[in-house]
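Bug #77: duplicate submission created two jobs. Keeping one. Sequence:
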Amino acid sequence: MFVSRKLPVVPAALLALAVAQASSAAVISSSLVTPGTINGNTYTSVGMTYVNGAGYAVGTTAAANAAQLLWVYNPTTSSTSFIGFQSTDAPAYVGSGGSTNTVNNIPNPNDPADVISSNGYVLGSTSRYGYKTTTTTGWNAIGTDAWVAAPSTAAGATGIVTPTLVAPTTTLTDSNGLTSSYFFTTSDVNTNSTSGINQTYRNSTAYGVNASGQVIGYANRYSGGTTTLSNSTASGIGTDVWISTPGSNGTYTSTPLGLGVSNSATGYAGTKAFNSTNYTYRTSSLILGKLPNSTSINDSGVVVGMTTRYVPTSTSTLGTDAWMYNYNGSGQTYQIGATGGVYSYTSGSNTTQSTALLQFNPSSQVAGTSNRYGSSTTPTGMDAWIYTPNGTPTTTTSLGSGNGYVQVGLTDASTSTSIGHAYTDSSSYLHQTSTIIALNNSGQAAGTSTRYTSTGTNRGSDAWYDSGSGSSVNLNPYAGAVTVTVNGGANSNYLSSVGGITQNVVTMNSHGLVAGHLTGTYDSNNVNLGGQAGYVYDPSNNTEYVLTAPTVSSIDDFGKVQVMALSDSGVAVGYYQTGNVTRTLETDGTITTTVTPNADFLFAWSEGTGLVTVDQLNTISVSQVATPYPGLNTLLAGQSGWAALANSISGLSITAPLLATDVNGNIYGLGNTSSTATTTNGVFEITGVPEPASLGLIGVGSLLLLRRRKA
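Kept job's structure:
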């Protein structure tokens, strides 16, 4: 079976219609970013990484010599700044060619949810280089420096905003008296060949920033001393999480965080030998999510993270424990999560337990999972929970025991005649697995739970919604817990499957609406056609709206719906695809089923209008299509190849697909300002996703209005 995906393109005629219908229509005549010659380098191309709910957008711009800066668009001033270090700021910033091609970048561009705060603090990184030894010419990479730029920082004479270094760069002593080295001196770099070149190898990443400019991130720990670059991994002794706080003079002070780091807890240090010396090995981490509220720091300065548990005499791990720092401004680190009882397994002097944090909101509510154990270190599943501290943060041995922990997810037991979400094995151990995908600012949550037979056979997963009370609603349309409305002509058997439906969660908005997919559709011959339906669940009326391709009418039809984003106004956008199904009776009596996909169509959906087809998408094929990141702030990475729009639209040529949507449903993309441009040189905002009540009145064309922005 061959299933292809095409890239979305909005035809010029549709955009023209949108302009004609808008009461205050304006077509783009300038872009958010118009790079040129900056500090001697000519920047010709731009890339966009992220836009937050407040409308701050951030990306990169590159020059022909590989120099790269960050750009940040400020919606309050309608202005764009260029940010980054230059070779004159430090010897190590010369660039890989040893000239002025300094490379500044977005930290963790594949997971950019935390790179810019609600008021415009932006994070970045700069690559470090040092000249090779006298026996070899050229430049060696010697790590990465992390930095932050405040929204009020003015550009210097070069036209570039100089950021401020964050993260530990030398050595720090933690609260337990252990001194950690965050660098080593590399013998691969020759200071005699080029005067002043820095021989220090260090590697830090900024991973979150709040409205006060506090930054959190990672820094690699090293054994210190002098060694070769090839030994950088061998000399590594773990990773510390740090928080860096701005002082009155604008400089930042870094403090390492984690269990056994910023408190006196034990069990979080292993041992690693390097050059015949034993070193303390430790590792902490942060939430690495792509949904809103996946940050590990909020505007109150509360930080959550995880620290790895170790066998003291080695680097063998025993799971992870979770922690919360600075709750109510305490400046203290507390362990949180479910531990002990079914959430731990002890063998001799070693206890295995593992808690993962998945979401964290502005009210310091945190959502996570804790593994369940039976007679070994192999988990028997995991339980999902929401924790609301009601005093000093603490752990629990029993979820839902009134100490701030609420268990969420589906836990009904399977029987010999029914599929449920838990089963008991022959040793009387209970198996159940739930995870949390989304937690909004109101404490509403959504996630999935695994379906099992009574003997433990996996039958897919069901999505669920929880108001925060622990009474999770099963969103499987056949579970009977929700009212189901199916759009189009699809009959009730369309979503049925022999193996059981697999349901996921893509996102949740601030009102608790949940969007996702249902997969695993089988035809009448029990052949999986690879079909998929979308859904949106509205808790206010307990109704699940199943979105199918309009031409699908039976289980023998192929249809695929991909929900890409869900705005706070309740508009879901995405694409759908249909296909021709051919069934051939072979000579041996078997049936060969072939699906030939048709074109993709862009759609918008709301409760008031149902699924509305915007237009057929362009049929350009591409070699790399990434799965859309879930969430309202959605980056569709890895896609390229938008066909040019008609030049009558103010000469705008769109050269990349939809890149991001903000909390209001506005969409951002890349393009050229003229049909003769050879590189992408503009970032544009496509706005106007209407409120549900007005979607049908305004017309589908206005979904993609282009709004003028001053550069």
